[in-house]
Amino acid sequence: MYIVIRSNRTKSWHPLRLTLIFAALFVLFVGGLLVSLKIGGGADVHNLDAYFVLLLIVFSYLVFARYRLENGEFPNLVPIPWILVLAIFIMPAWSWLRFNVSFKTYDAEVTNAVLQSIQEQVDEVNARGGETLFITQRHLISMGMLDGVTLVPEYEREDLMEMAMGNNTTYLNRFRADLENQRFDLIVVDPLIFNVISRNRSFSEENNVWVRQVMRNILCNYREEAIFPADDIALYVPQQGERQCPELIR
């Protein structure tokens, strides 16, 4: 069995055309590799997304023959085995199946109870004229699941991580000062587990930068008020009296 695509083996492409296509692919490939080698780059090839997208575009033009020859004509038709087409669909599907991808459901009553608890805390802060910081879980606000929250845009988790990895002292000093002054009456973030790990562990650089530059500043000035482990949500409120900091092991 065969499908057909258009092609013409008798007419070559202009060298400049091929050079520019391969140059673009090469630059994105090398750039993706360099980003992957940096701190925060990750352990897989997700930083090659731009390269893969462009490669998919080029491949699609070839497979569906939507490119033109140098004379402006579409190429002729040539057969392609069905087995190759089948492999194109099977390979990515098999790749995902290796990770045991499955459909998950949630308990609506439990979820509503969690949302209600967070809303009550937010309402209490608003009643006192205080400020709430959502470092994570900001989708709860954008999707209308919580009310009465004014976002603090500069202290979102990804921004904090980027600034910590880049050692942006101006930004980090401002963040530390806000926490020391207990600017926020409530902080919503993932549960903070203070743990500096060995450099030979996976993602140790990212973990240790986050722990030292972000997490410690929170835990030195705030205490855990409530935690919802199933949803990766924790609520932190200002410490009262003498403040306690977690021990930093270097």
Write the layout of secondary structure elements.
Blueprint: E1 2-7, H1 15-37, H2 49-63, E2 76-81, H3 82-97, H4 108-127, E3 132-134, H5 139-142, H6 157-165, H7 169-180, E4 186-189, H8 204-219, E5 222-228, E6 233-238
Parallel strand pairs: 3-4
Antiparallel strand pairs: 1-2, 4-6, 5-6
Helix pairs in contact: 1-2, 6-8, 7-8
What does this structure look like?
By secondary structure, the protein is α+β, with helices and mostly antiparallel strands. The protein contains 8 helices and 6 strands, in the order E-H-H-E-H-H-E-H-H-H-E-H-E-E. A 4-stranded mixed β-sheet has the order 3-4-6-5, with helices on one face. It has a two-stranded antiparallel sheet with strand order 1-2.
Q: Helical region count? A: 8
Task: Please tell me what the overall shape is.
Answer: elongated
Largest sheet: 4 strands, mixed
Number of strands: 6
Average of the residue pLDDT scores:
83
In the predicted model, the low-confidence regions spanning at least 5 consecutive residues are: 1-10
User: Strand-and-helix sequence, N→C?
Assistant: EHHEHHEHHHEHEE
Assembly annotation: single chain
Biggest sheet, spatial arrangement of strands: 3-4-6-5
Strand content: 5-15%
Radius of gyration: 26 Å
Distance between the termini: 64 Å
Q: Considering DSSP H and I runs of 4 or more, what fraction of the residues is helical? A: 40-55%
Structural class, judged by helices and strands?
alpha+beta
What would you say about this model in short?
This protein has 250 residues and is of the alpha+beta class.
